[in-house]
Structure formats: C-alpha cells, structure tokens
C-alpha cells in the first residue's frame, strides 16, 4: 500500500507499507501494517465510505486516528459526520490536525 500526506510546509511525504490481517480468521477491517519491517502496528478501519472515497483508520487503544481521503477535500458535512462517529467510538480529537490542502 502507498500512502501520501502533506507536511505543514506543503511538501508531500510518501510511505510504502505492507498490510496483513491482524487475525487470519478476520475481520478484514483489522490489519497489522508495517512501514519498516519487522515492526507492525494496528491499523483498524473504523469508518468507511460505501464508495471507498474516504476511510477512517485508528488503533484499538484510541491513541491514533487518521482520516484518509482519495480527494484533497471532504465536505464539511462528511467531515463533521466522521468526527461525530469517532467521538462515539471514544476517540479524543483534541490533537487531530486537519491538513491544509492546495487546489
């Protein structure tokens, strides 16, 4: 898998990772991911757009949360809905930083 994000200075950072099921019996929404072998971390899909336009990934300890989108911008309605559902799953969102995007 390939991920890309923007730093606060606008530069793009790409990372190539490898994912595997956390448990061979499933579910397929709970993964273990490595960006530098042999270290794997929990990568659980917590929320997902039905058309795969965006996904919310977190960890079971509720320490990390990422909102991933195939487009640079989400509508305010979608973004607020994602935040509401994340709060409902006991995520603390105080440290969540929305990346500034260019057009």
How would you describe the overall organization of this protein?
The chain has 103 residues and is mostly beta strands. 13% of the residues lie in helices and 40% in strands. The strands form two sheets. Strands 3-4-5-6-7 form a five-stranded antiparallel beta sheet. A two-stranded antiparallel sheet has the order 1-2. A hairpin with an 8-residue loop joins strand 3 (18-21) and strand 4 (30-36). The longest helix has 13 residues, at 76-88. The two termini are 24 Å apart.
Quantity of strands, as a count: 7
Please tally the helical runs, counting DSSP H or I stretches of 4 or more residues: 1
Quick one: biggest sheet? 5 strands, antiparallel
Order of helices and strands: EEEEEEEH
Structure classification: mainly beta
End-to-end CA span: 24 Å
Form type: globular
Uncertain regions: pLDDT < 50 for 5+ in a row?
A: none
> Percent of residues in beta strands?
35-45%
Percent range for helical residues?
A: 10-25%
The quaternary structure here is single chain
Quick recap of the structure?
The chain is mainly β and 103 residues long.
Note the main attributes of this structure:
mainly beta, two-stranded antiparallel ribbon, 13% helix, 103 residues, five-stranded antiparallel β-sheet, 1 helix, single chain
Topology:
Elements: E1 2-6, E2 12-16, E3 18-21, E4 30-36, E5 39-48, E6 54-58, E7 65-69, H1 76-88
Antiparallel strand pairs: 1-2, 3-4, 4-5, 5-6, 6-7
